[in-house]
From TrEMBL:
Name under which the protein is recorded: BMP family ABC transporter substrate-binding protein
Native species: Microbacterium trichothecenolyticum (Aureobacterium trichothecenolyticum)
Highest taxon of source: Bacteria
Stretches for region Disordered: 31-62
Comp. bias intervals (Low complexity): 33-45
Length: 218
């Protein structure tokens, strides 16, 4: 009888260990998942295609018909606890819950470069950045990891590579690299509605190949 009990306990423990090993983990990078749906006219420039590092203003709501497939792997890389950052974090988490994306969160307050590396080591389909302080560290990291896709919401890199997409608006647009905070910066512009639109527009851009640009959603 004791052997039977021990066997059951051992099997249960093994199941827990296996679950911990394979639960939230993503074993390796994979080919980019396809978007569900297509954007409406006006989402991307017609001709010529958007040039790298350019700024494009998509038609309002033109991204609404695009969604990530269920199980889309996203890491939310975040730093800081100011009101704009909290609003962006809430928007990403709400979007993930709504679409069925598989979301992991990496808080990088202690070491932002290390946080970015930890985010990449999780092998996500997309890393979403929330928090102005991440701009300069990401300028260093993203240029050396062109195989990884990044989305920055509420800020942008001064010189993004083709794997970095950003979504900005009047009142945001922090660019780092000693350029300082824009004169038009306004924390009140980080509303839940605008943050939600920024996340959805940015993900739609990454999924449909409109990458390496800044989407302006005013």
């Amino acid at each position: 009888m004791r052997r039977g009990v021990l066997f059951v306990v051992s099997v249960a423990m093994l199941g827990l260990l296996v679950g911990c090993a394979t639960g939230p983990g993503w074993d390796a990078p994979r080919p980019a998942p396809a978007a569900l749906g297509t954007p409406a006219p006006g989402f991307a420039p017609a001709t010529p295609p958007a040039a790298p590092e350019s700024t494009h203003s998509p038609a309002p709501g033109s991204w609404a018909g695009v969604s990530a497939p269920s199980g889309y792997r996203v890491v939310l890389l975040t730093v800081g606890d100011d009101a704009p950052t909290r609003t962006l974090v809430d928007a990403v988490e709400a979007w993930a819950a709504d679409t069925g994306a598989d979301l992991e969160v990496v808080h990088a307050d202690d070491d932002m470069i290390d946080g970015a590396v930890r985010a990449m080591e999780l092998n996500p389909d997309l890393i979403v950045s929330a928090g102005d302080a991440l701009v300069d560290p990401l300028a260093t990291v993203t240029a050396n990891h062109l195989d990884r896709q990044f989305l920055i919401v509420g800020a942008e890199l001064a010189e993004p590579t083709e794997n970095v997409t950003a979504v900005d608006w009047t009142g945001a647009a922090y660019r780092g690299e000693g350029l300082g905070t824009p004169a038009a910066y306004d924390p009140a512009s980080f509303t839940p509605a605008r943050a939600a639109s920024a996340v959805r527009a940015g993900v739609a851009a990454v999924l449909t190949g409109l990458r390496g640009v800044v989407l302006w959603i005013d």
